[in-house]
Q: What sequence folds into this?
């Protein structure tokens, strides 16, 4: 069975290098975005629950109805790379940990 | 907007689904839906985009989980070409599993059929907060400890994915049918 490996239509796939730990994956720009999200989330939950939000290099960018439109804005319109911004939903546990124990 | 899943049946015994011609065993009382992986900024499914079965698992706390091998064989994507998504992490048996930026296409079924996709109704785009979890098959997908995680036997679609997309799930256990609508 042959398999075609699809790539992003805007950039070639760049396989991620193995890392020693989870936090090694967090670039400084992403870390700043996560700090800003944690700071703003209580207010966002009051003002825009269920919407989506984007941060670039730690700075608030925009709120929208869907993540996809924010990804389009960041990747296609602003030409950002994935390690410069975050997009997430405005939900109580955004930025948090999902516990899963199947047994 | 028409319902996405209409009288989608599930069985009280083992059944088989065909994925790219290969038989996949489905256990009793597992709800199978057909999905495709969407890149984060993908607004339309690619022509002839691959689709594959996933278990609609109401006990799964995440959005979507899949093994690296199934992601590559069934969706045509290598796990490490999907960008890291820091906005959620899954702690699976105490190990942090990085999420990957991706969304899903959920394919409507033909009324009363599990594995027949409706050719008229377009697939529904599911915005996945935090993306998807990819782990298992001996792959180190982040921290070294992820290499020893056991993958889900089939991909899992959790209620978290349905909630953010404001979908209504109806489960008729008496008749073993599932409905899903906006």
A:
């Amino acid at each position: 069975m042959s398999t075609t490996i699809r790539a992003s239509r805007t950039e070639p796939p760049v396989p991620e290098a193995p890392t020693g730990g989870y936090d090694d994956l967090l670039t400084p720009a992403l870390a700043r975005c996560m700090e800003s999200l944690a700071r703003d989330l209580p207010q966002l939950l009051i003002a825009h629950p269920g919407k989506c939000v984007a941060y670039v290099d730690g700075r608030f960018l925009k709120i929208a109805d869907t993540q996809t439109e924010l990804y389009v804005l960041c990747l296609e319109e602003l030409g950002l790379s994935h390690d410069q911004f975050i997009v997430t939903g405005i939900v109580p546990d955004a930025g948090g940990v999902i516990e899963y124990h199947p047994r | 907007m028409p319902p996405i899943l209409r009288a989608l049946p599930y069985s009280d015994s083992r059944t088989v689904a065909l994925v790219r011609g290969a038989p996949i065993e489905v256990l009793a009382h597992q709800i199978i839906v057909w999905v495709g992986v969407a890149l984060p900024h993908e607004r339309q499914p690619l022509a002839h985009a691959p689709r594959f079965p996933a278990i609609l698992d109401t006990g799964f706390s995440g959005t979507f989980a899949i093994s690296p091998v199934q992601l590559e064989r069934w969706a045509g994507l290598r796990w490490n070409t999907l960008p890291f998504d820091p906005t959620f992490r899954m702690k699976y048996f105490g190990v942090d599993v990085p999420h990957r930026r991706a969304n899903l296409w959920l394919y409507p079924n033909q009324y009363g059929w599990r594995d027949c996709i409706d050719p008229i109704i377009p697939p529904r785009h599911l915005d996945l907060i935090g993306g998807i979890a990819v782990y298992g098959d001996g792959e180190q997908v982040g921290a070294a400890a992820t290499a020893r995680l056991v993958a889900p036997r089939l991909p899992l679609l959790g209620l978290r994915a349905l909630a953010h997309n404001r979908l209504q799930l109806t489960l008729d256990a008496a008749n073993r049918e599932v409905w899903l609508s906006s």
